[in-house]
Amino acid sequence: MPKSPTARSSSRSRSLKYILMLGALAALPAVTTDMYLPALPAVAEDLGTTTTAAQFTLSGTLLGTAVGQLVIGPLSDRFGRRLPLLIGISMHIVTSLLCAIAPSIGLLIGLRILQGFFNAAASVVAIAVIRDRFTGSAAAKLLSRLMLMIGLAPLLAPTLGQAVAGIWAWRAVFYALALIGVILVVIVWRWMPETLPPERRLPKKMKGAARTGEPGGYRILLRDRRFLAFAVIPGLSMGIIMSYVVGSPFVMQEEYGLSPATFALIFAVNGVAMVISSQVNASLLNRFPSAGILRIAAPVLLVLAVILPIVIATGFGGVIGLVASLWVVLGMLGFIFSNATSLALDGYGNMAGTAAALLGCLQVGLAGLISPLVGVFGGTALSMAGVIIGCAVAINLVLATTPAYRRRGLRLGGSPNRAEPGDPAAQASGTAP
Fold first, then answer.
1. How many CB atoms lie within 10 A of CB 160?
2. Which among 361, 398, 390, 363 has a CA at the least distance from the CA of 374?
3. pLDDT for residue 314
4. Which letter, b or e, does each residue of 243-279 get, where b requires 16 or more Cβ atoms within 10 Å of its Cβ?
5. In this structure, are residues 238 and 367 in contact, taking their beta carbons and an 8 Å threshold?
6. Which of 91, 128, 238, 272 has the highest CB neighbour count under 10 A?
7. 381 near 322, Cβ under 8 Å?
8. CB burial class (10 A; 0-12, 13-18, 19+) of residue 320?
């Protein structure tokens, strides 16, 4: 019997609330990092330290996030999603308050590492919850919707941070981050159900790993070539994003002579490219499998990336030509990131937290290794373009040289709600919550 218009409207409303909740959780690490960016000069001056030391409060947060994901992911597979999430966000609140009163740069760096460690619970659990309830194209579609929230974080957080620090000084940014944590705890406590029932949780020694005969979730994942292939692709995509983030301030302001205000506007416009493309990708998933979209998007990304240095070297279109080229390159990532993530998680419903943790760690780790290459190669527009091309080439090589992708990728991506045997939650949740 078809649903009534009222029932469909109610279902859409619940789906929107669910997406907004998971999106807010997934964006917490990005907000924690980006909201703090405008305060860096004030931190260095107030604490009497160097710019390098102040910048390490950012890289320390990323380091903490990478390690935190590896620890919290398996814990969420063993104890359920809600408990590690509530503990992680609660400790994010505590560390934020301590950061606000930190008397020295050394203590601030240490607290920022802890802050990154604990708020990693938000992003890991958000991805794991999606895998608990969805597989295949349905998971990729929801991930694409989350990109709207995650994509808005780097656009809005620095502006909010500038406003807060401009009125109440840099320490107030951490009080604001603590307040955000309090709001998230209330939302999770009241409205987020447990998506991993006790019968599906992993025992301490992972007896559920009989497929490989090896104990330990990470050992299983690292032996799975198909998982690694699809897990590396989001990391390479993040490498493109971070190479642009690291290189663009110098390229736009020093090479092209743009003012900080104009650069901020261009940065926001390019961020919108990924938001739009991720929503288009969600619509395409109604008709095409995740792997099919990925297989087309990756070569197109490479072609667009190769055009980028040509535009730079010839000066075609000036700064408008450069911005337009970057816009389409960054936009293609919306068709790659979500689909590769959902394909990596496909088949690991019994350890979604561990798989999401390794995915997140690879993203942070690869982005951290790749983005400094822009400066190593000169910090120019051409060096930024060269790093972007290198990442695009690597993405295509991973897809082209992985037998699992050639033999099974399209089939695995073609079922919107394919459930694993013995995965009752996946079988029971083929529609939006």
1. 16
2. 390
3. 92
4. bbbbbbeebbeeeeebeeeebbebbeebbebbbebbb
5. yes
6. 128
7. yes
8. exposed
- In angstroms, rounded to a whole number, what is the distance separating the alpha carbons of residues 153 and 315? 32
CA–CA gap between residue 340 and residue 291 (Å, rounded): 8
CB-based contact 248:384 (threshold 8 Å): yes
Stretch among 16-30, 57-71, 151-165, 244-258 having the lowest mean pLDDT: 151-165
Alpha-helical segments (H) within 101-135:
105-133
Instruction: Specify the pTM.
Output: 0.71
* pLDDT tens-digit readout, 351-394: 777 887 888 888 877 887 887 788 778 878 999 999 999 999 99
CA distance 127 to 345: 9
Cβ–Cβ under 8 Å, residues 34 and 157: yes
Q: Which two tokens stand for residue 39?
A: 């305060």
Contacts of 125 (CB under 8 A, 6+ apart): 25, 72, 76, 81, 84, 85, 88, 353, 356
User: Looking at residue 338, what is its pLDDT?
Assistant: 81
Q: How far apart are CA 255 and CA 276, in angstroms?
A: 28
- Apex 341 CA angle, 336 and 347, nearest 5: 135
Find tokens 């620090």 and name the residue: 165
Rounded Cα gap, residues 399 and 405, in angstroms: 6
Grouping H, G, I as helix, E, B as strand and the rest as coil, residue 203 is coil
User: What's 23-53 look like in SS3?
Assistant: HHHHHHHHHHHHCCHHHHHHHHHHCCCCHHH
